[in-house]
């Protein structure tokens, strides 16, 4: 299964009530390497590791084939700064 | 009576015998990882070795450790397929590299980078009695000034 930027973006917005999501496919098209920025108030009060684990859990299936996954997780307040 | 016993016990026995071989491997690798991360203050599971990382993310973690002059033990997951899967199961984290401090999973490359930038890494190292080289450099600068 090859995932697209669009697919991952939609899923993150839906599952995390994200107000802003950026997804970049760094893989030259093989779909195995992504960088994401996720802005969601679901991160409020959560340390970095918990935030990243939350994102990982949403993409649990996808991460079985995506082997390089880089993320930035911000709350709405952090994003607006 | 004897035959009844045999019938009821044997199917169960032969079933349970098949499962442990896999479970046993999982338990063995889990125990091994437990041992590794508890015996060392800082452990990095990575692709390749510190002198020759075989992945950009692993390399980034090595460079961060170098900047802070952190003594750590590294394990190459590419040379051990059981470890490669085992470490992901152990920490419930899907990617390599993985950093452990004091037996606790701290994060992968992104988290290490962000902790490095925010100064949190210096604090975490301090908690386990490791003084970051960046802190030492800062103090020297202050003394000179």
UniProtKB/TrEMBL annotation, chain A:
A Pfam family hit: BolA
Transmembrane segments: none
Top-level taxon of origin: Eukaryota
SUPFAM superfamilies per record: BolA-like
GO MF term set: 2 iron, 2 sulfur cluster binding
Gene Ontology biological process: intracellular iron ion homeostasis; protein maturation
GO cellular component annotations of the record: cytosol; nucleus
First and last residue of the signal peptide: none
InterPro entries named in the record: BOL2 (IPR045115), BolA (IPR002634), BolA-like_sf (IPR036065)
Family classification: Belongs to the BolA/IbaG family.
Designated name of the protein: BolA-like protein 2
UniProtKB/TrEMBL annotation, chain B:
GO annotations of cellular component type: mitochondrial matrix
Residue span(s) of domain Glutaredoxin: 42-106
Keywords from the UniProt entry: 2Fe-2S, Iron, Iron-sulfur, Metal-binding, Redox-active center
Domain of life: Eukaryota
Statement: the UniProt record of this protein carries the keyword Protease: no
This protein's record includes keyword Metal-binding: yes
GO molecular function, one term: 2 iron, 2 sulfur cluster binding
Name under which the protein is recorded: Glutaredoxin-related protein 5, mitochondrial
Annotated source species: Leptosia nina
Upper lineage: Eukaryota, Metazoa, Ecdysozoa, Arthropoda, Hexapoda
């Amino acid at each position: 299964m090859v995932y697209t930027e669009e697919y991952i973006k939609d899923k993150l917005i839906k599952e995390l009530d994200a107000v802003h999501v950026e997804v970049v496919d760094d893989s030259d098209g093989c779909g195995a390497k992504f960088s994401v920025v996720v802005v969601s108030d679901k991160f409020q009060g959560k340390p970095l590791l918990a935030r990243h684990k939350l994102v990982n859990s949403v993409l649990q299936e996808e991460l079985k084939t995506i082997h390089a996954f880089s993320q930035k997780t911000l709350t709405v307040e952090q994003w607006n700064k | 009576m004897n035959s009844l016993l045999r019938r009821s016990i044997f199917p169960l026995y032969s079933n349970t015998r098949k499962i442990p071989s896999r479970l046993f491997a999982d338990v063995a690798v889990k125990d091994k990882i437990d041992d590794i991360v508890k015996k060392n203050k800082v452990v990095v599971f990575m692709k390749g070795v510190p002198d020759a990382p075989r992945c950009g993310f692993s390399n980034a973690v090595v460079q961060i450790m170098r900047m802070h002059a952190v003594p750590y033990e590294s394990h190459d997951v590419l040379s051990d397929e059981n470890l490669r899967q085992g470490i992901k199961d152990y920490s419930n984290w899907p990617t390599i590299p993985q950093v452990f401090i004091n037996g606790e999973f701290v994060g992968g490359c992104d988290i290490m980078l962000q902790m490095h930038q925010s100064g949190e890494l210096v604090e975490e190292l301090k908690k386990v009695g490791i003084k970051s080289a960046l802190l030492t450099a800062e103090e020297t600068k202050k003394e000179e000034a």
